[in-house]
Amino acid sequence: MIDTCIFCKGSVKARLVEHIHTWRGNQYIFRNVPAEVCIQFGEMYFAPDALEAIDDIVKAKPEPEEHRLLPLYSLS
Q: Is 45:2 a contact under the CB 8 Å cutoff?
């Protein structure tokens, strides 16, 4: 994927991350998503095949492994 963060030019490391994906106003939590993560600021970069797999899942809507409640806050 990438060798350095495009924002700070710092190092990135391969990690499995938890990612919240928003699609059509709904939010989905994915765990164990392969990503390159900036070690300085935490910016995450995903491979196209990982993003395609996420899109396929949210379109197919299979039964999730678990359900979580997400808190909602407003700054206004």
A: yes
Architecture in CATH of 12-60: Roll (3.10)
User: Taking every pair of C-alpha atoms in the chain, what is the biggest distance, in angstroms?
Assistant: 40
Any long-range contacts for 2-9 (C-beta under 8 Å, 24+ apart)?
A: 2/36, 2/45, 5/38, 5/40, 5/41, 5/43, 6/43, 7/38, 7/41, 7/43, 8/38, 8/40, 8/41, 8/43
- The structure tokens 């989905």 sit at 28
> How does pLDDT run across 15-49, given as a tens digit for each residue?
999 999 999 999 999 999 999 999 999 999 999 99
The residue ranges of every structural domain in the chain are 12-60
